[in-house]
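Onboarding guide, step 5: your first structure request.
Type a short instruction followed by the sequence, for example:

Predict the 3D structure of this protein.
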Amino acid sequence: MKTARIALCQINSTVGDFSGNVEKIVRFINDADRYKPDIIAFPELAITGYPPEDLLLKPQFIEDNLNALRDIQHIVDDFIVIVGFVDKRDDIYNAIAVIHKKNIVDIYHKVHLPNYGVFDEYRYFQAGTRYPVYQMGDVTFGVNICEDIWYPEGPATIQALSGAEFIININASPYHIGKTSFREKMLSTRASDSNIIMAYLNTVGGQDELVFDGRSFVVDHDGNVISVAKQFDEDMIIVDLDLDAVFMKRLHNPRRRQQIIALGKGMVEKIIIERKKRSPTHSPIHPFTSPPLHIEEEVYNALVLGTRDYVRKNGFKKVCIGLSGGIDSSLVATIAVDAIGRDNVTGIFMPSPYTSKESREDAYELAKNLEINIIEVPINDIFETYLDTLKPQFKDMPSNTTEENIQARIRGNILMAFSNKFGWLVLTTGNKSEMSVGYATLYGDMAGGFAVIKDVAKTLVYRICKWKNQKEGKALIPERVLLKEPSAELKSGQKDTDTLPPYEILDPILKAYVEEDKSFDEIINLGCEEECVRKVIKMVDTSEYKRRQSPPGIKITPRAFGRDRRFPITNRYRSW
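The system replies with structure tokens like these:
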């Protein structure tokens, strides 16, 4: 039986941590080598971390990356390692090193460079032009990088027609809702169309706004998923590929013969790797077979991973959160506890004259349930001092959002004081619905270092909290928090609906306008009330200046603010 054994190493690299990334790669090579695989693979730009952004414009960064590659090269024995790095020629390339017996036998350059959404690879890289395949004994395979696999007539198809029996595609593919099933469908189609086995290897971990969810997988020649790695965690899967089955499939495909003729000879370079097939000493690692998670659990896990990595990779140990007794701060605190542990999370409760008895009770009950420390810092006296100080200028003018925002800014100052004094990272608690329409106070509740739920709509916040309580089998997040009407509590009797449409009406409008770029008329045609849509779009457009000054936050939708959506602050275009 003709087989090949591959090891897919789904690792969490840190951008610029060359020594740490090399140490991790070497450790995974040693762990994988116990199973005697023919090929050990690592993700896209595993050596540098992804995305390195403008670090790529620093010549020393490129050299350090090449030195790190040499450190890996020297420990590779009679097996093949493929690893992502930055190649330097007359320009720089997003590349794969194919390493065997301490030698780099070939370097593959990424052909299709993404330049949309969160990607900006034309800014940095030159595109590759080669489509090599590699022959080790009687086995032929190809490698390519991320975007290369998405093109039906791209490198993968050309390599398959040139004799490759399987392809390893290495990735740094960021997570968003729905992407998991989309990837699997695409790879399944590509594999069955080309009668080839596809191994999709993704990185995992958080990097600023991005979360990479891993969930690497292997698809057989019929398009069936045969092995899946964990989601949101480092993992290694060992898979034995049945290459006889690939051959048999191709025997029954006359269309493939015509495609090979059309391709022509000599287009693809074949590189011979002199090595004998290894004799496996252990059975393959049993694949992780659980189905994709439900949206609430998937998003929650993405938020936990993104928070954990942002905190740890930036050198923080502890965080603090302004606890209001509301649902947003409750969810952020719960995520923080799961991300870095209850001993590293502190809640700051800052009551004002308008804070309700219920909010106090809910904030303290949450802290008790999560077993986190809570500190109370009333802002009444500070607020009165502000009002007295400003009274000569404000005179007898009526109270408005000015006085409301003063309270929020006092709280922001207090949170930042704790951050400065104790070295805690402040996690802000604004959700996507609020950030979209500017229902937040600049330098107030927006003050902080990381915005955990910045890309999570309010209605999804509720769904996640309900899911979390169900999972825990108890009201970890107090039940009243899920039931009471949302309020900023910055004036007497205030409710969010005083300013905004109900969230179940607001969120679909925001999704249509922000994430799907639908026009005013198209949103009206969805059944939304005209004046409501006009008001929401105006609030979104005029709040861009606030969003530009907000902390980075985790992307979980196909269209997040910041990297995905770049809207000019100064413009006179009106679509409403």
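Each response can be followed by summary notes, for example: The chain is about 40% helix and 20% strand.
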